[in-house]
Write a structure and sequence with these properties.
The protein has 253 residues and is α+β, with helices and mostly antiparallel strands. It is built from 4 helices and 11 strands. The protein has a domain of 161 residues: Nucleic acid-binding proteins (OB fold (Dihydrolipoamide Acetyltransferase, E2P), Beta Barrel), CATH 2.40.50. The strands form 3 sheets. Strands 3-4-5-11-8 form a 5-stranded mixed beta barrel.
């Protein structure tokens, strides 16, 4: 008990209490002097106790930014998928089979074509082979949900023309008054009018991650997918007829 009491005093006061010294011996013949013992009423130190004062809880005003309203985009427009809806289902593990297991219809605006990017070596009549070093891309167009949509967030449509020579001959026939031109290599009717930026269309076909009809190799887009053309319905015409580099168009009849 005594050692525990001393430890408490040391913690409170910083040192142990001093004990009285024994009497000192004096020289022979002199009375011994004794040191007075500390009074029992004296304490080694005074322990000051600070009373508890309750304080109010800390209050900090926090201002958070407002919650933005996310635009709710439609999955479908009638019986057709929107571009956003088709690509969303395409990337969904739950809904992917709904858009890749059977032909679907996608409605949107043509926001880009690669017709004017065709190299001049590929622009000629049908039946004539491209030069050996001529490597044109496959004809394609992109559809988005709005006229100014980013082509990178749009769906590429392929399979409506096998090469630019078929498109060259189709332009000649359409401008001559014919309504249909068949791409015999792929067995598909080239759309009339030709795909042009600004047109609003409904395109039906097979929606996959790859397009494998080209002899030059497969094309792939695992993010937005590729639509293999089957047929197309024009809802709104384009402001200008599509053409190829160096090919002038006659006024529509």
């Amino acid at each position: 008990m005594r050692s525990a009491w001393l430890a408490l005093v040391v913690l409170a006061c910083g040192s142990a209490p001093k004990t009285a010294k024994p009497p000192e011996r004096q020289a022979s013949g002199s009375p011994a002097r004794t040191q007075a013992a500390p009074s029992s009423s004296a304490t080694p130190c005074a322990l000051d106790f600070v009373p508890y004062e309750p304080r109010p809880a800390l209050s900090i005003e926090v201002r958070l930014p407002g919650v933005s309203k996310l635009e709710k985009k439609p999955i479908k427009i009638g019986d057709a998928y929107s571009v956003w809806g088709a690509s969303y289902f395409f990337r969904s593990r739950v809904h992917k089979d709904e858009v890749v297991q059977k032909p679907i219809v996608i409605e949107g605006y043509i926001v880009k074509t690669n017709l004017l990017d065709a190299p001049r070596c590929a622009v000629h009549r049908g039946g004539k082979a491209d030069p050996e070093n001529c490597r044109p891309a496959l004809p394609a167009f992109w559809i988005g949900d709005t006229p100014g949509a980013d082509p990178n967030a749009s769906i590429r449509v392929m399979g409506w023309a096998s090469n630019y020579a078929n498109i060259f001959d189709a332009i000649r026939d359409f401008d001559a008054g014919k309504t249909e031109y068949m791409d015999v290599f792929w067995g598909v009717s080239i759309p009339n009018p030709l795909p042009a930026v600004g047109a609003k269309v409904r395109v039906s076909g097979a929606y996959r991650a790859t397009f494998a009809m080209a002899s030059s190799g497969a094309e792939a887009d695992p993010h937005m997918g590729l639509l293999t053309y089957r047929e197309m319905l024009y809802l709104e015409p384009a402001p200008v007829l599509a053409t190829l580099p160096g090919v002038s168009r006659a006024a529509p009849r």
